[in-house]
Amino acid sequence: MTVKVRFAPSPTGKIHVGNVRTALVNWLFARQQGGEFILRLDDTDRERSTQEFAELIKTDLTWLGLDWDDSFRQSDRMAKYDAAAKKLKADGRLYPCYETAVELDLKRKIKLGQGKPPVYDREALKLTVEQIAAYEVEGRKPHWRFKLDLPARVEWQDLVKGPQSFDLEALSDPILIREDGSYLYTLPSVVDDIEYGITHIMRGEDHATNSAVQTQIFEALGGKTPEYAHFSLLTGKGGEGLSKRFGTASIESYREEEGFEPMAINSLLARLGSSVDVEPYTSLAPLVESFDFSSYSRSTAKFDPHDLEVLNAKILHMTDYEQVKDRPEMGGISKALWETLRPNLSRLRDVEDWARLVNGPVVPIIGDKEFATKALTLLPEGELDETSWKAWTTAIKEATGAKGKALFLPLRQAITGMDHGPEMAPLLPLIGRDKLVNRLRGETA
């Protein structure tokens, strides 16, 4: 069996880390199993779906390295869904209902007031031809519900949550078609999963009840129910939900505004909510190799942006020059400068500021002119190299008696205009003798 999975975002907003976590676990499993990862754009919401959001989803996934083997839009497949709806109607599994939203809400409130579950009463199945005609004259348009085959208990061995069991009598017949004739998520999703041979459906635990209902729709359409894996929900640090509609923790913002590395996001989301420690990775390969359903917890996973900050810095500190040399943020700096600056980076875009220590201009901080002048006279002759710093500071220590912070801080401030930064030994030859001399003299260089 060839494993086939899908990521099915709606292009109604920017995708956030919760969406990407779903995409990532699907992608990792597919790649580990040598299977296929399909990108399906669920754009049946005609009012809110846009081409701009569809393209942004693809941009975000590409940036993260999550390539897809096939992609399609549900809006291009309406004839398929119409045919499935026609079959279900003919088989008596899809029936018209004429209650308004107000009437349905009133029914729910009455049942709740009676201490009963707010399950739809199937009154629409009792409508006579005359009653239906009267509704039509009123101008009412029906919504269509899928008739669950009851009594029934749906059970499966969830790859994350373990044994699952749902009594369908506790659920309402789901609405599959709205009054305006548009489809809700459920029917198109099942039709697509059948046709594309999806073998595993991997998504948030909030869809577990939907999965139970969809099992009967798969059967009614002659399809095989895929295996299910329902992951714990991802929330913000304070337990708040993540909403793509309002751009919360959107991937675009982390890419464009925050300047995070894609592997910082992948490294965190792949392990978040699992028993495996989060580690910084510079490629997806180790995450593919180590993917394991059994490592995921059933508890809610919390996303803290600070964890991204830490991972991003660690990843940059591990990143080789060849991996980043052509990126625009680098500004064409040399390998030697990259290796000198790399331990101080938290974002790649910080390279430009740190490179200024070498390229200038730097405004020296001279707290003690006499000390700076003495240091200048002790600067080693000839071309500076990585041994020059130790030789120089040793000579200054012997001549002035300065040591520790009193020795190193004034030199750093005079040479870089800062009281912290990269190691001075490799920085010195990169700055060069001329700039070094000028800065020790208090000149901007």
Automatic annotation (TrEMBL):
Keyword tags: Aminoacyl-tRNA synthetase, ATP-binding, Cytoplasm, Ligase, Nucleotide-binding, Protein biosynthesis
Enzyme class, top EC level, equals ligase
Q: Motif 'HIGH' region, which positions? A: 9-19
Q: What is its EC number?
A: 6.1.1.17
Name the positions where ATP binds.
K244
Q: Does the keyword Membrane apply?
A: no
- Hey, which family's this protein in? Belongs to the class-I aminoacyl-tRNA synthetase family. Glutamate--tRNA ligase type 1 subfamily.
Q: Which PANTHER family match?
A: GLUTAMATE--TRNA LIGASE, GLUTAMATE--TRNA LIGASE, MITOCHONDRIAL-RELATED
- Function of the protein: Catalyzes the attachment of glutamate to tRNA(Glu) in a two-step reaction: glutamate is first activated by ATP to form Glu-AMP and then transferred to the acceptor end of tRNA(Glu).
Q: Specify the protein name.
A: Glutamate--tRNA ligase
Name its species. Answer: Emcibacter nanhaiensis
Name the gene that codes for it. gltX
